Amino acid sequence: MNKKRLNNILPNLLMIVIIIVAFYIYRKYDYNYFSKGILEKGRTEFSRDSNVKYSKDRSYKIENKVSNDAMFYREVTVRKNTPYRVTCMVRTENVVGNENDTM
Fold first, then answer.
1. Cα–Cα distance list, 99 to 25, 46, 64, 86 (Å)
2. How far apart are CA 32 and CA 74, in angstroms?
3. Exposed end of the chain (fewer CB within 10 Å): N or C?
4. What is the pLDDT of residue 15?
């Protein structure tokens, strides 16, 4: 392969790699306008999960290495004296409380 042709291919190849990496990061960390809330930083990992999910959409995943108050939340605008229904599906795995934790 001559050098001129290689110089034409490399920028395109680099752009494809950048797009693939950006797409992967977006898919893993896109929280659909939800925010993450934690008590102590560095103890919790937030991600999206394509393997364990309730519907066709990816689930939100919170993993605590040690006890920590962690959540996903979203602020919404509401009207006074208007009823609203909020629903969610929660799945837990290997949840163990500590003596000093309150539920």
1. 37, 25, 17, 31
2. 9
3. C
4. 92
Mean pLDDT of 88-100: 78
Q: How many Å apart are CA 71 and CA 65, to the nearest integer?
A: 14
The tokens for 57 are 């959409």
Q: Which long-range contacts (CB under 8 A, 24 or more apart) does 56-62 make?
A: 58/27, 59/91, 60/31, 60/34
Contacts of 83 (CB under 8 A, 6+ apart): none
DSSP of 60-76: EEEEESSS--EEEE---
pLDDT per residue as tens digits for the range 16-40 = 999 999 888 777 667 777 777 877 7
